[in-house]
Amino acid sequence: MKRVYNFSAGPAMLPEAAILKAAEQMLDWQGSGMSVMEMSHRDKEFMSIAAQAEADLRELMAIPANYKVLFLQGGASAQFAMVPINLLRGKTRADYINTGMWSKKAIEEAKRFCTVNVAASSEAGGFKTVPAQQDWKLDPQAAYVHYTPNETIGGVEFPFIPDTGAVPLVADLSSTILSRPIDVSRFGVIYAGAQKNIGPAGLTVVIVRDDLVGQVLPNMPVMFDYKIHVDNESMYNTPPTYAWYLAGLVFEYLKGQGGLKKMAEINQRKAAKLYAAIDGSSFYSNPVDKSCRSWMNVPFTLANAELDGAFLSGAKKAGLVTLKGHRSVGGMRASIYNAMPEAGVDALVAYMKDFEKTNG
Ligand SMILES: *Cc1c(COP(=O)(O)O)cnc(C)c1O
What we know:
seven-stranded mixed sheet, binds pyridoxal-5'-phosphate
């Protein structure tokens, strides 16, 4: 068996320990005689798996008691709609910050439900930075402020949590959740598709402050109401049981590693090594302003784009895969979430130096 270093933006690598534990428990979860895949979500075995996963996530992120944690489906993309549907609460306007492709998708979806005020945008400069908070033109009538703390495609990350006063702050944390500690109490809603830094695809984690639940727009599908999921502990219908279980194994693994403070140290070091390799050479470059470079997604280009194919095929031979950049950006992108070992980043840096030596 050969494992590669997989730099995919998502679905992405998972901690090997979590996959191994799932393999060990594949046919018989703790003497139940069945796989977790085969369990009813109403059985006490699965209920205990689900409860443990939530408890571990609460502990890892220090989620305050007045926040609900939901394990849903539909991806972050469904949250682009569920956020306005649940958070408008009688208002008709919402603020959005535009820092890249995912912000734009959230904005387009919100426009179906309300008037969107793009309070700040870094689009004119090509999304290489994030707009400073003092330049934001927030709408006093806005029901909430939505932003994307980490733009997975552009590799742009907010170095601060915006201050929106009493107006609920909503964050699409899909590609940076669990990468470091964050103060959950600063947010009204946090949501994340699991397939980047939580677990397998098919699960979406939503963390919502309890006073924001229960004021859904009229005539919406029941599945789009946070309250139905809160009232039923994310089991109104069949939840993504196996993805929930695997997310739980990842949470358990992260706790064993020393929690999010420890992950932050490792992630920062991994990112610093990769950016140092890029900045230390005239062959590679990253366009993002140094103050807002992502720890998780590192896009970079080669001085000569005609060498992209050779770079990628050589990388593959060296066991470094899925480095091709997003089709909208070109070049390369290395996603280095929690599960990417530091040795994987070291191997990539060594390969980059080697490739430059022979092709630069
Ligand atoms: C991947 C991603 C999404 C889309 O997630 P889905 O779960 O595929 O809907 C949205 N926002 C961000 C920041 C992402 O990285």
